[in-house]
Write a structure and sequence with these properties.
The protein is of the alpha+beta class. It is built from 7 helices and 9 strands.
Length: 179
């Protein structure tokens, strides 16, 4: 996949999307994956919620909607990809210290470096083995008895004998919703 496809999906070109592009490319190559996941045959874990995750989604086919993209809020430029078919997994990390000093404050130089640098200079790859996440489940929908909006039944909270969504339950007990 070309980087221009990432830019089209993400909306602009930036160092973050380039980092995600290079990390995903490295992970998929290491696992011998030649295409996007149609269902859940590839599972990805991202340790950040930055621009590079868009590259991960479009290149690997791992998405929150399919349930094969897992977010761990560690703030690290790290992706872990697994193949359900082979059981193999790799953790890829962007080596930010590889960026030359003169490129750190120059967005275009930084972007050019990330896209052109040899993979071995900017990406750390290691095989990993962890318990494979279970395939995504589809849950029934319930209705919040306070706001009357639909909510996944596993997210219903009991409040005074009634079924509330999380924001309504928080508002009921704490006086404010966090939505």
């Amino acid at each position: 996949m070309e980087y221009t496809e990432i830019v089209k999906f993400h909306g602009h070109s930036c160092p973050g999307s380039a980092i995600g592009y290079r990390m995903t490319q490295a992970a998929m190559d290491a696992l011998g994956l030649n295409g996007r996941a149609e269902d859940e045959e590839i599972v990805a874990i991202t340790e950040n919620d930055a621009c590079g995750v868009d590259a991960l989604q479009i290149m690997s086919g791992c998405t929150f909607g399919k349930g094969n993209l897992i977010f761990r809020d560690f703030g690290k430029p790290v992706f872990t990809l697994f193949s359900r078919k082979t059981g193999k997994g790799v953790r890829v990390r962007f080596i930010d210290t590889a960026i030359p000093q003169d490129a750190l404050q120059d967005r275009e130089k930084k972007l050019a470096f990330i896209l052109a640098a040899p993979q071995s200079e900017i990406i750390s790859i290691r095989e990993v083995s962890v318990d494979m996440p279970k395939p995504a489940k589809i849950y029934n929908t319930a209705q919040c008895e306070q706001c009357h909006e639909s909510v996944m039944e596993t997210r219903i909270k009991p409040v005074s004998g009634k079924a509330f969504c999380i924001p309504c339950a928080m508002e009921s007990c704490c006086g404010q919703a966090d939505n």
